[in-house]
Amino acid sequence: MTNCPTLIVMVGLPARGKTYISKKLTRYLNWIGVPTKEFNVGQYRRDLVKTYKSFEFFLPDNEEGLKIRKQCALAALNDVQQYLSEENGHVAVFDATNTTRERRETIFRFGEENGYKTFFVESVCVDPEVIAANIVQVKLGSPDYVDCSNDEATEDFMKRIECYKNTYEMLDETLDKDLSYIKIMDVGRSYLVNRVMDHIQSRIVYYLMNIHVTPRSIYLCRHGESELNLKGRIGGDTGLSFRGKEFAKSLAQFINEQNIKDLKVWTSQMKRTIQTAEALGVPYEQWKVLNEIDAGVCEEMTYEEIQENYPLEFALRDQDKYRYRYPKGESYEDLVQRLEPVIMELERQENVLVICHQAVMRCLLAYFLDKTAEQLPYLKCPLHSVLKLTPVAYGCKVESIFLNIEAVNTHRDKPEVGQVFNTNTLMHSSPANSDFIFSLQKIGVCLH
Amino acid sequence: MAASPARELTQNPLQKIWEPYNNGLPAKHSAQRGVCMTNCPTLIVMVGLPARGKTYISKKLTRYLNWIGVPTKEFNVGQYRRDLVKTYKSFEFFLPDNEEGLKIRKQCALAALNDVQQYLSEENGHVAVFDATNTTRERRETIFRFGEENGYKTFFVESVCVDPEVIAANIVQVKLGSPDYVDCSNDEATEDFMKRIECYKNTYEMLDETLDKDLSYIKIMDVGRSYLVNRVMDHIQSRIVYYLMNIHVTPRSIYLCRHGESELNLKGRIGGDTGLSFRGKEFAKSLAQFINEQNIKDLKVWTSQMKRTIQTAEALGVPYEQWKVLNEIDAGVCEEMTYEEIQENYPLEFALRDQDKYRYRYPKGESYEDLVQRLEPVIMELERQENVLVICHQAVMRCLLAYFLDKTAEQLPYLKCPLHSVLKLTPVAYGCKVESIFLNIEAVNTHRDKPEVGQVNDQNNE
After folding, report:
1. A54, A178, A284, B142: least buried by Cβ within 10 Å?
2. Which residues in chain A are closer than 8 Å to B7, comparing Cβ atoms?
3. Could you report the per-residue pLDDT of A163-178, keeping only the tens digit for each?
4. What SS3 state is found at B147?
5. What residues bind substrate, as annotated (chain B) (predicted)?
6. pLDDT tens digits, residue range B120-138?
7. Which residues are CB-contacts of B58 (< 8 A; sequence separation ≥ 6)?
8. Is B293 one of the catalytic residues?
């Protein structure tokens, strides 16, 4: 998706959501497979200056403070270069105020010298209520204010913001007309977008324009236990077992009790999720892209049958469960790509209940909880449990509610090293090592 | 809200969608994502001086929305004017003090809005694109009130451009050939049109960040160099904004073709993942030569992840990108069968497919309708790109072609995309020029026409 690396540069006064956006954007890009890392200059400052005393550190005439802050910015840029030029990073998010044109020019030149494309993300907000809410959400709990009362922290932080205001030079339509940037105004009421250069910048703009900060919760669960679940078979399109139907009724009761405002309900197009939704007695929307991972030739088999009939496939899957694609089927990696529109729409929506499947739920959960590709296929998503996700501060609060109807356990942990079926003998019988990659992802690779 | 006893589910035989049924009839309760994206209808209102690309954007946006399954129609007020005032005389019709002209133009706007209302409120349209200059705040307020009264969400799309070269190029592309100027020389037409633009300039009130802060709109500046987006209200507006921000007007061509003839093609079997036949390999070499001769600047080459398209691309000797979403339609249980075998083993399925080939989903497979949904990111990226060659498959190519040539869902599954032919698509004026080049290597014919009513095979005996 990216040719040269991209350097995203945040711009804005303190408490305008820069770190919130940085972390969220980083999480999203990593989830869709673009290696991204954020570099928070405030963190570099905390590592260097062990104890934060007061806002006076940020006064524009505090020579010592300015020197340290510049040093931190350069250290962060150094790490950015390391990440993008030596560690195969694709995108770096440089999270700092960057409120002067001079500072931005320094960073832009750094980008040019290293062959990075630079994209600025500015957050502009004058609404005092929003600023106050941000301070409560993420500043009062900051390491800087660990020994202060809330009132002391708020007062100091407001003075900190004042330190930046006089020298703040916003991105300007005329002066900065040749830069690539998005200016986000009033938490997303409006946007100014200038000179989007490539695909990844276009995706970043689309994502930033769809996220919001309105409080809400996302409920994730699987369909009720199905007939094939009971038989230990994967995939297929069967209906609910007796216990699965009990779960559906239990889910209806749970949802009722939660008293959720304007809840949207989404299902896949497989019978078992739709049957589950039917019990709720509310309108629901069917998404084909929420269908369970396609196990191809292994559909409706038990794991024992797969191991017996396709021993190499079985072993390959345990070696790299994220990238492994079933023959004539899909991989978790494919799932993430097809679920991206679901994530985008979940970001747009408010209260949503998604009734889906094990692999699908793992992918969605990995997005919200910032799990890696290695962790994702082993996330625990048991039948008959609902996960309630509520955005808070920079992350997501998770509540797990088991609805007290027994069900089979469909989870397989990653096998221990010794337990891995002996692929070495199988692999030595294949001509070239590159065949291994071909077998895993079922992607045609030219054997030159 | 008490939980009612769960309703029984039945699987619709055509689309394989599970629906609840009451007394044997499917109940309308669930919605299917992809079809039902909009709650209340949306009224898109174009804004801008003449020759700023409003009609270009209207038509393109309408084509895109219809392709992704959102029923959309454009209403060009200039067309209403041409229908009413049979002959166009001169720019003087548009002078701000021409009472007669003003009266007619207002009449046309109201007639168009009347048809908008018919389309959105009575004909199940989801989106209407109201294409006119709409350059005064007063006119926009009238339209906004109309939208509110009818329960439509209004979204403005303004195109602002001051670059004289762009304006001149627009005039050449789409104005000189307009019915208004059918009896004029190019110079006469250009001169008159420039004066026409002047008629609007004095009364032009652009969308304003302060005065119009409560409206939903996108302001497109300098053909997409920058955008101002205000108060996007819902999913469809978000998709419209994303689309508008990805299209461009840089001249380029898109080449579409299928993989070379495959082993399964030779056997008359559908789907699968086999390699090229001998003739298919010859085609690949021929394609390489053709591409070379075209001397295309910075050509990107895309394939699916199926062996036959990749083998075809390999012969070109240039880098290419594999897209899984370009894979051929999944025929589910019918994969690798001949049509005869399908008819024999799945006679009902075979008949259903001929009844509604667009919506028909193979058991454990896909429909053309599903294909369109998975190809949408390809279309979006094709819009962003410049010169691209897409080596794909029959059903996939039909879907892509339908987007570029504005074909309906009924026409799409029957578009002719024979093996060993390349289609070169070049955007021109409001549409797309198509050149079809057969690369002179024989191949089997994989096309099945829509059966005649009488020809539907012996399902009657079933």
Report:
1. A178
2. 278
3. 999 999 999 999 999 9
4. helix
5. 258-265, 308
6. 999 999 999 999 999 999 9
7. B44, B46, B74, B76, B129, B131
8. no
